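U., I forgot to send this yesterday:
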Amino acid sequence: MPLLKENFMTQSLSTELRGKIASAMKIENFEPNQKIITYGDQGRDYFILSQGKVKVIVYQPKTDPNDPNLDDKIMFTKELNQGAGFGELALIYNDKRSATLSAIEPCECYVLDGVLCKQMIIQSSMKNRSNRAGFLNGIQLFDKLESQQKLKLVDGLLPIVLKQGDYVFKEGDEGMEFFIIEEGEVDCLKENGDDEPRYIRTLKQGDHFGELALINNDKRSLSIRAKSTFVNLLTLDRDAFTRILGDIESFLKKDYTV
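Result:
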């Protein structure tokens, strides 16, 4: 299911596990203004919106769901579009729903039972989260981050898998993302007009790159190409990095240009 490849809860899962999840999901349709999730209800399902738009109403903390003036306790509202997943927080924390979600227009959702969600998605995601948090602990760049910042960073990282010979980016590309090597090696190359660019250095597991073009809002000064049979990268774009960690320059410093 293409939606599972793009969904933040399932995109890092194996193809086999995504297939099992797709087989376990059922389709539910909702009419305009029909509630999909109701604030205060016990969480039982996880949803992925496949068609339509959904309105999210978030209430002030500790608001009584039976308050006759519930509308006066709205903290903010937002809309979700096709591909959005929702409902996982109440499942993760065995808690009640923290918001009300209603269909703005006719909506179709893929729905996964909460028990299966915990077994198939959350346990795997939390294991990956824990593994990546431990991985970041070994990277000197993040030594001064608080544990909460590291967890936010883990949640914002997107995995990328490259095959040998694939380019992460090429010299002259716009620099909009920061990269960490989770597994494998990449070569840094300098274009020189020949068929094969000039080799500069090899980066290995735990190294990070792409920061200077990101800081300086500049183009890439080197090309980066996968050296290993497979290379696993973790990436974060400029907006996500600023949102999670604040000032980019205070975190991203290196003694070489990428």
